[in-house]
Amino acid sequence: MTKEKTEMILGILDKEYGVTKEGFFHKEEWQLLLAIMLSAQSTDKQVDETLPRLWERFPDIETVAQARPEELEDAIKSIGLYKVKARNMKKCCEKIWKEYGKRAPMTIEELIKLPGVGRKTATLFLADAYGIPGVTVDTHVFRIAKRIGWADGKNPVQVEQELMEVLPREHWNRINFQLIYHGRSVCTARKARCRDCALAQWCGKRI
């Protein structure tokens, strides 16, 4: 795909979905990291509804680290995979508290060493918390990037690298939420609504 076509697509995405997003409710960086962890395989609405009560009940990183798993489970039980996430929250906060002086790390290499934090979560956290440019590849980004010809990698890491080469650096942080919104509303996995798609003319894999 030419640079001009890519710029046209990016312009449409900016117009359709905006250039900024509302982040999860938080006051400290570690809270944002946990919120992103909770959002995996859950809806943003579920997480948004849970966070105010969660931070009221566990206001600092020490209270999460020292909480019993059952207490954390009770606080997030409306969220998918809450038992696993509760264990990871506790272990993650313990490690940040003891090894990083209560501040979440600022590199992918350090973040992915934390329990429950994968590359996608780490990249998204760095973008949202510190404004560090990075491309986050979830299922929507993976699918749509390949459909419009930006990537042909066989796994998220390959697609991430391809997108970083194709896209201007200033678009890295927002391409994730833009393609997520597009994937949820138009270019769905089961049946894409190609007639309603503003990107259809560039899509080489129409359904």
Strand content of the residues, in percent? under 5%
- Fraction of residues in helix: 55-70%
List the helices and strands in order.
Answer: HHHHHHHHHHH
User: Rg to the nearest angstrom?
Assistant: 18 Å
Distance between the termini: 20 Å
Mean pLDDT level: 92
Any idea what the shape is? Answer: elongated
How would a crystallographer describe the biggest sheet?
none
Question: How many DSSP helices?
Answer: 11
Q: What is the number of beta strands?
A: 0
Structural class: mainly alpha
Would you spell out the secondary-structure blueprint of this structure?
Elements: H1 3-17, H2 29-39, H3 44-57, H4 61-66, H5 69-75, H6 82-99, H7 108-111, H8 119-130, H9 139-147, H10 156-166, H11 172-185
Helix pairs in contact: 1-11, 2-3, 2-6, 2-8, 5-6, 9-10, 9-11
Summarize this structure briefly.
This protein has 207 residues and is an all-alpha fold.
Q: How would you describe this structure in keywords?
A:
207 residues
Give a verbal description of the structure.
By secondary structure, the protein is mainly α. Helix content is 58%, strand content 0%. The chain is built from eleven helices and no strands. It has helices at residues 3-17, 29-39, 44-57, 61-66, 69-75, 82-99, 108-111, 119-130, 139-147, 156-166, 172-185. Helix 9 (139-147) packs across helix 11 (172-185). The chain is elongated. The mean pLDDT is 92.
